Amino acid sequence: MERIGYNEYIDDDGYKRKKQIKYSNLVHRQVAYNNIFLKNRNNYSLPFSKYVVHHVDGNKKNNAISNLIIITREDHEKLHMAKERQKEIDLKKLILELSKEKYSNAYDRWTTEADKELSYLFHEGRTTKDISELLKRSGGAIWSRIKKIQARKLECPTSS
Fold it and tell me: What is the pLDDT of residues 33-64, one digit of tens each?
């Protein structure tokens, strides 16, 4: 708990609280109740206690009216699940971008031509590092593809 004034403090969850407030000591709920809920009561079918007040920018200390929305608990959970999915998507995009910066062919489909070139370089005795630089793919991608090519050859031996 962090004191920020005589009757105000930040709780362990990061929310601003104020002592001696009529309905809730959570400041964001008071702001939302007085400035959003009461002024737009016709838009809400449930009592205020059944709603969650969400901080749009994710900053629990930003209790500006423009940063608060009143939503049902169910919608609040959906919102946070969507944000988590978006974080995963953003992380995957970042990984792809960073990989593409280092290896321009990273995550591109392997073509028959690329497979032939990989097989040739591998059988020529080139190092994974050399092949990686030549084919512009990571060392892990090179080894995965070599294993796949070798597995295919074992499954379908050529007739002599």
Answer: 999 999 988 888 999 999 999 999 889 989 99
Question: Is residue 157's pLDDT more than 70?
Answer: no
If you search the block for the tokens 């407030």, which residue do you land on?
21
pTM for the model stands at 0.53
Residue among 65, 44, 43 at smallest CA distance from 54: 65
Which are the contacts of 33, defined by CB distance < 8 A and separation ≥ 6? 23, 24, 48
Q: What is the DSSP string of 60-126?
A: TT---GGGEEEEEHHHHHHHHHHHHHHHHHHHHHHHHHHHHHH-TTTTPPPPHHHHHHHHHHHHTT-
Domain ranges of the chain: 2-72, 105-155
Q: Which fold has domain 2-72?
A: Homing Intron 3 (I-Ppo) Encoded Endonuclease; Chain A (3.90.75)
Coil, strand or helix at 43: helix
Cβ–Cβ < 8 Å for 146, 116: no
> β-strand 16-18 against 8-10: which pairing, if any?
antiparallel
